[in-house]
Amino acid sequence: MKEEILTTQDLHLYYGDKEALKGINLNFDEKGITALIGPSGCGKSTYLRTLNRMNDLIPNVTITGTIKFKGDDLYAPSADTVQIRKEIGMVFQQPNPFPFSIYDNVIYGLRIAGEKDKEKLDAVVEKSLRQAAVWDEVKDHLHESALALSGGQQQRVCIARVLAVSPEIILLDEPTSALDPVSSSQIEATLLNLRHDYTIIIVTHNLQQASRIADRTAFFMNGELIEVDQTKNIFMNPANKQTEDYISGRFG
Amino acid sequence: MNSKTQNKIAIGGLYGIAGLVVLILLALLGYILASGVPQLSWHFLTAPGKAFLKGGGVGIQLYNSFYLLILAMLISFPIALGAAIYLYEYAKDNWVTTTIRTAIEILSSLPSVVVGLFGFLFFVVKLHLGFSILSGAFALTFFNLPLLTRSIEDSLRTISDVQREGGLALGLSRWETVTRVILPAAVPSILTGVILSAGRVFGEAAALIYTAGQSAPALDFTDWNPFNISSPLNPMRPAETLAVHIWKINSEGIMPDAKAISSGSSAVLVIAILLFNFAARYLGKRLYKRLTSA
């Protein structure tokens, strides 16, 4: 039986006085891909960023409710954000490789954690880049700058960088919206390969993308979770009128 | 008058103004170089000065300028770096930060002669450092600190926030993100800022007249024990720099070739600062290229 790896209960988030998330209850099973969809400003990215506490960086944010990762409260005073972010990695909308070599980008997390064994690092670089489906394209330029790569390659190197620290959950915030269609489909293929080993939560604007890759889809609107179900059901047979209107392109 | 003509007039006016600035600059540079470069020789650059006779050089002043510059940079760079990192990466936007920023702003607009007089009263007199390289280096630190802090802060600002998020999302702590991701990425631009501020420090005179002093005792370049008074490394000796030297011989020089020495020194100063600027551009570009491409 699958276990719930991440649970959110009655999650509210305020930017100053403005309530951006209005009581979200949403749980994630281990492994597989969940897509978060919804119109701009619906709170899906905000929600995603509460899951590895990236919202901590923004001043004037208040969060109430409970998020539990494997039973531990992420927002407990004793919670270690650095450890949390190692276990819950994140890939951003804009590919953001560091201005170093591809090799250094991938092993950055490990190297800073103190790993020095060259053979082990080499192995991790190859494994992560293979998992991110970019190994064949970059294996001959590992020591060249990651900034010289195309946007799609950069994004896959960023995915490899996250994989290298062996997270359990990978959050992706519109990872393909800055990329061309070919690169986007490569990223999608990468994610489909990873879904058996990782819990993947992806925010996307692209409904087709959600329908192509996600096992489950959650529809957000105005800071509320309207509906969550198997992707097939959301697209073929949504329970909620608003979901149906959004899916069928009546707004958003 | 239609908008097209207006546009033409405006562009013409702007070209004219820009041209005027360039012209003034070229005229100044041309004058300094034309009158100074003929005085330059190996002897001029290395020989010690002469007070009453002709044929003196600026070797000691030139050396003092560099030594003072290095000392001032050694003191001011770590402080400026720390301040800039604090202000940009850590400080919250509240009244404390605003006060610090305003203070830096004010410090950077202090006339350098005021910095010099403060240095005289505080370092030379109160702390009994005397007219010395150390007093001069501290005064230059005061002069340099705000400029350098600002320029490093600007360098940090050019590093996009997505890099910070990338580091944090990877499970790096704030400090690791700053030191291992942001600073390396900002190195080319920080370096450019440091060299440019070195150029300003190198040409500074007013802050040094009352702190590093106006005399250039003979140095023994074979004695590298910093505790000996004639050692070039001794930080407690008075040390007239090139910029101070120019000011001094123009106001009270009594050697017969004062005019020539002043022109030559000016040329050396201008050339050195030009070299700093070119070096800043070149190194910054090269480092950036190395970091961003193959």
TrEMBL record, chain A:
UniProt keyword annotations, A-Z: ATP-binding, Nucleotide-binding, Phosphate transport, Transport
Keyword Nucleus set for record: no
UniProt domain ABC transporter: residue ranges: 6-247
PROSITE patterns the record matches: ABC_TRANSPORTER_1 (PS00211), ABC_TRANSPORTER_2 (PS50893)
UniProt cross-references to InterPro entries, sorted A to Z: AAA+_ATPase, ABC_transporter-like_ATP-bd, ABC_transporter-like_CS, P-loop_NTPase, PstB-like
Molecular function GO terms recorded: ATP binding
Superkingdom, natural source: Bacteria
Coiled-coil residue spans: none
Keyword ATP-binding: yes
A Pfam short name: ABC_tran
PANTHER family for the chain: ABC TRANSPORTER I FAMILY MEMBER 17
Protein name, entry field: Phosphate ABC transporter ATP-binding protein PstB
Gene source species: Levilactobacillus lanxiensis
Gene name of the record: pstB
